[in-house]
Amino acid sequence: xxxxxxxxxxxxxxxxxxxxxxxxxxxxxxxxxxxxxxxxxxxxxxxxxxxxxxxxxxxxxxxxxx
Length: 66
Fold this sequence. Notes:
Elements: E1 18-19, H1 24-33, E2 38-42, E3 48-53, H2 54-65
Parallel strand pairs: 1-2
Antiparallel strand pairs: 2-3
């Protein structure tokens, strides 16, 4: 039963991505607006260079407040 469940059954088909030039607070807003917990960061050629997560965003916000 569980062995027949695949990633394709649950993956999003509408990709939300960020660029490395995206302002951190704009990235947080984009995550919240799309109700997602992370987004891929793409370079100018459309290649994956990393991930930005809600944890990354929280780290920035907490450091800014201290």
